[in-house]
Write a structure and sequence with these properties.
Helix content: over 70%
Largest sheet: 3 strands, antiparallel
Number of helices: 7
Structural class: mainly alpha
Shape: elongated
Strand order of the largest sheet: 1-3-2
Strand content: 5-15%
Distance between the termini: 38 Å
Number of domains: 2
Radius of gyration: 28 Å
Amino acid sequence: MKPFQKNETNWNNRILLVLLILLAFVSLIVLLVFSYINYGDTTNPILKFFIEYHLEFMIAMVFVGFGVGIITYYILSGKIKEQDETIKETGKLLLNLLNSNEKEVIEYLVNNNGIANQYELTHLNGMTRLKIHRVLEKLEEKQIITRTRLGKINKIKMADNILESLKTLV
């Protein structure tokens, strides 16, 4: 078994544990609600016990609910942190593959939520219209950006997945 598969199996086990905890929590709430609804039927000693102390059980369920939420957060927060680290690594790798002019254009786009007009980019340091055109062609070939023609203006839009990866880095 590869390490990746072992790690994936570990996450699947954690998710299964969370689902089982949530199922137990929901089952307990359903039991309490139905025991309260069947208040007149007190022949069952277990239901009689729940009916007698239903208020205490409801208060306990609030605390159990908080506990289930905390446990769920603790179990699943590692997966979220792991995904954030992967996104940062992808962004760093992308920036390392770009030359300085491309990095400058990418930084400008990230700071403007991934959208800009081509003429705005000519105001960057030492960038002529021809340089911007060539840089944008390279970025478009790499599928980092898309250009849309609006009359005489080119609208530049960065790919959403790349924008999300780079927001934390720039």
